[in-house]
Design goal:
3 domains; Rossmann fold; N-utilizing Substance Protein B Homolog, Chain A; single chain; 8-stranded mixed beta sheet; 11 strands; Alpha-Beta Plaits; alpha/beta
Length: about 425
């Protein structure tokens, strides 16, 4: 009598994490949720940090490499599985574990087939075995989904290399004069004053200087909009749509008298915590920017507008699959309304910076083309080495930039002045 495989006897180690990864992917594809939104229910019952990290890593790798994983699966089948079939999703997880997380094939089989209890285990086992025998490999660069390729056009080839890996950990420093000192203590590198980059996977709360409020987590590209307003010298600035608050901290540290406004009290909780930890000051207002009005104009305004956040695709790869052209147009309409209101709150001689963490032209370049103020072009010396302003004096970053140094998020940034 043939010996039954081990995976048929016991629940193998790692199976709960893979079940959770399956739930995360189901939330993204079936309900359109973000990975962050789905974590609460999908990871419930996973008590070990390692299991939670594995579930998120597996789901993230599937989302990054989905098109290429599907191509491998289809190459090993005579009749392709439907896109939403559970065996296809399980095979995606199995291949991601093997090809991206270096899980040995026997362990992949032991955990992966357990996800198909009562289902077509033999089919999944046969496809996976075929691919392992072929020594299948993924391409060096992920292939974005068709809808994303259509929106990004020729830029997709430059952006895609930045999607291959999760991002490193970027810190913005309260005191830029401590850049060299903190980079040395933490074992990091710096791409511009006030910035330190560390390898991903570190516990921020345990880093030297965290308790003292020496820094906060903020992608390098996300730190650029506030930098472009310069030193505050006690002048008044409005951080519009401020949550989660990294730019408010930057402005306060640069000497601005900050009013931080956001519609979400819950999302502002982290700002309150960081203000206390860093011992920085800001007036925090919970209000709808489309209804709120200031008493007097501001010397400067920073509008980091709500957007589709496609520029964060290397850290939130779910946006590659959730966001459609309809979402882009809806957010662009909201941004236009916010910009129109913000322009009316700017004092004579003041400057306004508009930014979105989006890679979509409708949420960036097309918005900037309709502003009736005097352009205040961004200079090359205001940006990290390797990032240059556009001919219009705007800033456009994407995940493929500075790839040799760890890359950065996708942002559009523009600046104007009221003369």
């Amino acid at each position: 009598m043939a010996k039954r495989p081990d995976f048929l006897f016991d629940t193998p180690a790692g199976l709960p994490a893979r079940k959770a990864a399956l739930k995360l992917l189901d939330a993204v594809f079936r309900r359109g949720e973000t990975l962050d939104m789905a974590e609460g229910s999908a990871l419930k019952g996973l008590d070990k940090p390692a299991d939670r990290a594995l579930a998120k890593a597996l789901a993230g790798e599937v989302l990054r490499w989905l098109v290429d994983l599907d191509a491998l699966i289809d190459s090993a089948m005579k009749k392709p599985l439907p896109g939403d079939a559970k065996p296809r999703m399980v095979l995606r997880l199995m291949l991601a574990g093997w090809l991206r997380l270096d899980t040995p094939p026997h362990a992949v089989i032991a955990t992966g087939l357990g996800l198909l209890a009562g289902g077509p285990r033999r089919l999944a086992h046969g496809v996976f075995s075929t691919l392992t025998k072929r020594k299948a490999r993924l391409p060096a660069v992920p292939t974005p989904p068709d809808a994303v390729m259509m929106r990004w056009g020729e830029r997709a080839a430059d952006i895609a290399p930045g999607l291959a890996l999760p991002p490193p950990l970027d810190l913005t420093l309260r005191d830029p004069a401590q850049t060299a000192e903190l980079a040395g203590k933490l074992g990091g590198t710096s791409l511009m004053p006030g910035h330190v980059r560390l390898p991903r996977g570190q516990a921020v709360e345990q880093l030297e200087g965290f308790v003292e409020g020496a820094f906060w987590v903020q992608d390098l590209a996300a730190s650029l909009p506030a930098r472009l307003l310069g030193a505050g010298e006690g002048r008044r600035v409005l951080d519009l749509c401020a949550a989660p608050g990294g730019k408010t901290l930057q402005l306060a540290a640069a000497g601005w008298n900050v009013t931080a406004l956001d519609i979400s009290q819950k999302r502002l909780e982290r700002l309150h915590e960081n203000l206390e930890r860093t011992r920085l000051d800001a007036r925090v207002v919970v209000a709808d920017a489309l209804e709120w009005r200031p008493d007097v104009p501001f010397d400067a305004i920073l509008l980091d507008a709500p957007c589709t956040a496609t520029g964060t695709c290397r850290r939130h790869p779910d946006v590659l699959h959730r966001i459609s052209q309809r979402h882009v147009l809806e957010m662009a309409e909201l941004q236009s309304a916010l910009l129109e209101r913000a322009l009316g709150w700017l004092a004579d001689g003041g400057r306004i910076v508009f930014a979105t963490c989006s890679l979509e032209a409708e949420e960036g370049e097309q918005q900037a083309g309709h502003i009736a103020l005097s352009p205040d072009p961004v200079r090359a010396d205001e940006l990290p080495a390797g990032i240059a302003p556009t001919p219009e004096g705007w800033v456009r970053t994407h995940p493929g930039m500075l790839a040799e140094d760890g890359g950065l998020d996708g942002f559009f940034i523009a600046r104007w002045a009221r003369n």
